[in-house]
Amino acid sequence: MNRYFLIIVSVILLAVASFSAVGFAAKTNSPLYTAENAPTFANNEVGFEETTEHPDEAEVSEKSPIPNPIQTITSFISGSSRWARWWMDFTDEERKYYESQKRAPGPARVGIQAGHWKNSEVPDELSGLKRNGGGASGGGKVEVDVVLEIAKKVKTLLEAKGVVVDLLPATLPVDYVTDAFVSIHADGSTSSNVSGFKIASPQRDFSGKSVDLVKDLYESYGKVTNLDQDKNITRRMSGYYAFNWRRYDHALSPLTPAAIVETGFLTSATDRKIIVSNQNLAAEGIANGILRFLADNELL
Prior knowledge:
- With about 300 residues, the protein is of the alpha/beta class.
- The chain contains eight helices and seven strands; from the N terminus they run αααβββαβββααβαα.
- It has a single domain, classed as Aminopeptidase, CATH 3.40.630.40.
């Protein structure tokens, strides 16, 4: 019985790998892969729900049901699931394609995304983000307004050190390539006692450098702001839509080091003292972490 089971599993995995290669070939069948010539997906697959515990984070499915094994296998083979090839390693085609995508020459370049900024202007594939509006709220403040100001301050600090900064809205350029990408957010909770910041890298880090970026950000942000760490890193953070390059056109190149920063809870009076009332500290903590990462990689 075990022998037959292993044979069946092996056949399925081979089929998945084959369809993965076919799917990527379809994605990159033109000299320049753009949103216009990319495959489209059913809107009901693009779920970006919010929860009361973590209202800021993009969901990975409409209701996150427990997957049916048969449906999962079918989705993997058809390529219709947003997670269909998420866990797989690079194919030779993918590696060749993404390694050929280079950022413009020049000084160090960083992408700073203000979470929820211009959510109303996202393309159809990200239309689920519109339901999030301006993100979390608390203390009379809305997330998008708070993090946009922090992002602008981070931009100013980095530019003072000679770094070129792209201040980005919810919609990223197609296959966005840069030396480092940081998405800035603020959290929310039904309890005012919940507080702290947290930072996550992509679930699959093909750059091999995102973990270092997260480490530098943790050390710097914690030191500068003196906020506690929230240990609750969820799949919604590590599976952030901007990281899912196999699923979305407007996403990061998988070779871009990336992090998502939840700067603190808007529903916490303690956290608001930093992220609302003393945003210079929040910005300094993020900027210093990025600068350390760039220096460690000899990009400054």
